[in-house]
TrEMBL record:
PANTHER family: CYTOKINE-LIKE NUCLEAR FACTOR N-PAC, OXIDOREDUCTASE GLYR1-RELATED. Residues 6-155 form the 6-phosphogluconate dehydrogenase NADP-binding domain. It comes from Streptomyces marokkonensis. This is NAD(P)-binding domain-containing protein. It comes from the Bacteria. Residues 162-287 form the NADPH-dependent reductive aminase-like C-terminal domain. Belongs to the HIBADH-related family. Gene3D superfamilies: N-(1-d-carboxylethyl)-l-norvaline Dehydrogenase, domain 2, NAD(P)-binding Rossmann-like Domain. Keywords: Oxidoreductase.
């Protein structure tokens, strides 16, 4: 038969959406989850709930993993690790690059191979043509399973052989996502303290966010060239500005942890002698790892 089949282990919102996407494409889908009840709706749609992890692993060569983190993966797979031989583990659980590399070695020691993936969309984006996932690990394994991977998100991109790379790219995206979203919560708190609703400030917030990619492009070229000249902005100007931000938030009585952390970084840049340089010089400060 030419019918495609896959195992999905980990049925949080992401795993459930992935199973749904495979079922929609006519795949035979075997599933397993620590909390079995999370499989109910998927079984009703035609997925097969394996009686245990071992059965879930032996059912298919291709095994999609969607756990909270890698510790959850070990807790689930370690007891059945003899069944890992010959499996391809597509690990879409998020964690650190080091954990992803260690897991790839762990899998290899058990005769399995891991492809690490970073999904860039929430559950609602799973199964959609325009959604994307980046992968790293053995290229040939990616090529071999590309058709199935394109069911999860229509766009797939293999970025390199290092199993930690996809995890790193994911974390690079997430450090931006979490801090950016928190900056938005901060903006809403400040607005609220001044009698404005989230809806009131939405257009202004969107306009501000849309201006950021232009700054990324402009500064990325200069940063890679090691240039931090203060011809268009000076750190001293930025320092004054972030203090206005801090004081505006303090005056409004809203939480100041976030603006104070920003002011702290600017202050450290000033103390390091960068007053006349661009605020991009903070990158140098943040890159330093020596104690
Ligand atoms: P959840 O944390 O909701 O669920 C993940 C699964 O992990 C559940 O099936 C859960 O089992 C299982 N699990 C957690 N701890 C253990 C454990 N100790 N032993 C066994 N199983 C365990 O995650 P999501 O589905 O939301 O996301 C999955 C991954 O995808 C995460 O790494 C997340 O960072 C990433 N991601 C999520 C996005 C999102 O918008 N949700 C977007 C992009 C990536 P149980 O049901 O029994 O609790």
């Amino acid at each position: 038969s030419t019918k495609q089949s896959v195992t999905v282990i980990g049925l949080g919102p992401m795993g459930q959406a992935m199973v749904g996407a495979f079922l929609d494409r006519g795949y035979d889908v075997t599933i397993w989850n620590r909390t079995a009840s999370r499989a109910d709706a998927l079984v009703a749609r035609g997925a097969v709930l394996a009686p245990n992890v071992k059965e879930a692993l032996v059912s298919n060569e291709l095994v999609i993993l969607s756990f909270t983190d890698y510790d959850a993966m070990y807790a689930t797979l370690e007891p059945a690790s003899a069944a890992l031989t010959g499996r391809t583990l597509v690990n879409l659980s998020s964690d650190t690059p080091e954990k992803a590399r260690a897991a790839a070695r762990w899998a290899a020691e058990r005769g399995a191979v891991q492809l690490t993936g970073g999904v860039t969309v929430p559950p609602s984006g799973i199964g959609r043509a325009e959604s994307s996932t980046f992968y790293s690990g053995p290229r040939q394994v990616f090529d071999q399973h590309r058709t199935a991977l394109e069911v999860i998100t229509g766009r797939t991109d293999h970025r390199g052989e290092d199993p930690g790379l996809a995890a790193l790219l994911y974390q690079i995206g997430m450090v931006m996502f979490w801090t950016s979203m928190l900056s938005y919560w901060q903006a809403i708190a400040l607005a609220d303290a001044n009698g404005l609703t989230a809806a009131d400030v939405l257009p202004h917030a969107v306009e501000t966010a849309n201006s950021l990619p232009g700054f990324f492009s402009f500064y990325s070229e200069r940063i890679d060239a090691g240039q931090h000249m203060g011809d268009v902005d000076r750190l001293a100007m930025g320092m004054a500005s972030v203090e206005h931000v801090l004081h505006t938030n303090a005056d409004a009585g809203v939480d100041t942890v976030l603006p104070a952390a920003v002011a702290d970084l600017f202050r450290r840049g000033m103390d390091a002698g960068h007053a006349a340089d661009s605020f991009s010089s903070l990158v140098k400060l943040m890159t330093k790892t020596e104690a």
